[in-house]
């Protein structure tokens, strides 16, 4: 007996769809390699907006003219560039690692959190006053409810 086909099956398990996603992935990697970041950003924004408009057309039976899509891509990119420029002005600059004084050890830690799977990875590096690594570890933990909890867990493991 064949299992029932669902939309999830079409987008997750279908060999054809997997091939299309793989080709799109390869093409986007190529695009980012060959073109400037601004051209690649325009391509990705345009693709996203076409996808968004197509979804609205299917769900809400709306029709959007190509001129509106072009205008919206242009508007989104202008807004993105304005926000990006403001953020760059706020950056203080990279912080350099400084060794600890005397015989103390310096512990650096961080956490990465993946919300859909409630999973986190903690990384810890311990250095002496000469900057030599004396210890390190990474820990993967499941059932973490938030990014805040992931950072707290990283701090706990570092201590």
Automatic annotation (TrEMBL):
PANTHER family: BNAC02G40300D PROTEIN (PTHR47074), RNASE H TYPE-1 DOMAIN-CONTAINING PROTEIN (PTHR47074:SF61). It comes from Gossypium darwinii (Darwin's cotton). InterPro entries: RNase_H-like_EbsB-rel. This is RNase H type-1 domain-containing protein.
């Amino acid at each position: 007996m064949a299992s029932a086909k669902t939309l999830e099956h079409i987008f997750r398990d279908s060999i054809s769809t997997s091939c299309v996603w793989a080709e799109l992935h390869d093409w986007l990697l190529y695009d980012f390699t060959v073109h400037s970041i601004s051209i690649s950003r325009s391509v990705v924004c345009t693709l996203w907006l076409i996808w968004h408009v197509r979804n609205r057309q299917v769900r809400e039976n709306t029709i959007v003219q190509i001129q509106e899509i072009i205008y919206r891509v242009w508007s989104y990119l202008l807004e993105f560039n304005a926000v990006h420029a403001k953020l760059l002005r706020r950056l203080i600059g990279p912080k350099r690692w400084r060794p600890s004084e005397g015989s103390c050890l310096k512990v650096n830690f961080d956490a990465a959190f993946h919300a859909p799977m409630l999973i986190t990875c903690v990384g810890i590096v311990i250095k002496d006053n000469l900057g030599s690594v004396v210890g390190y570890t990474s820990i993967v933990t499941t059932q973490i409810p938030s990014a805040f909890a992931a950072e707290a867990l990283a701090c706990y493991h570092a201590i």
